[in-house]
User: Which sequence fits this backbone?
């Protein structure tokens, strides 16, 4: 079975959340990381899952890794801890609650020092 079809429920939820955040933020107005950076979503997923993956890759992949979205963040492959302040969490291995994700997006993370606030809206 392809990796996209075996996507963990947490990954589906995170991508769905990203899609929902786009819809809310814009008022209705987008596995292992493969070498091509392709989005790895099963064809039978709702369109908002793919839109969430596209949005994540466009707005978040500079710092955060999320395999299903084809996003390799700034942390070097294989590095588990430490690193630069701009190395965002790897969401392929770290789960977050919906409200925590929305808070981080609105406020620029939890420290407010690195992640741009309202990054979803630009």
Assistant:
């Amino acid at each position: 079975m392809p990796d996209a079809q075996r996507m963990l429920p947490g990954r589906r939820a995170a991508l769905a959340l990203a899609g929902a955040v786009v819809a809310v933020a814009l008022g209705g107005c987008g596995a292992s990381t493969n070498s091509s950076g392709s989005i790895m979503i099963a064809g039978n997923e709702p369109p908002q899952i793919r839109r969430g993956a596209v949005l994540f890759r466009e707005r978040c992949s500079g710092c955060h890794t999320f395999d299903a979205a084809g996003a390799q963040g700034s942390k070097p492959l294989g590095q588990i801890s430490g690193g630069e302040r701009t190395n965002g969490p790897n969401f392929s291995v770290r789960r977050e609650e919906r409200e925590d994700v929305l808070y981080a997006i609105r406020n620029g993370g939890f420290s407010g020092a690195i992640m741009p606030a309202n990054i979803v809206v630009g």
Summary: The chain has three helices and no strands. The first helix runs from residue 9 to 26.
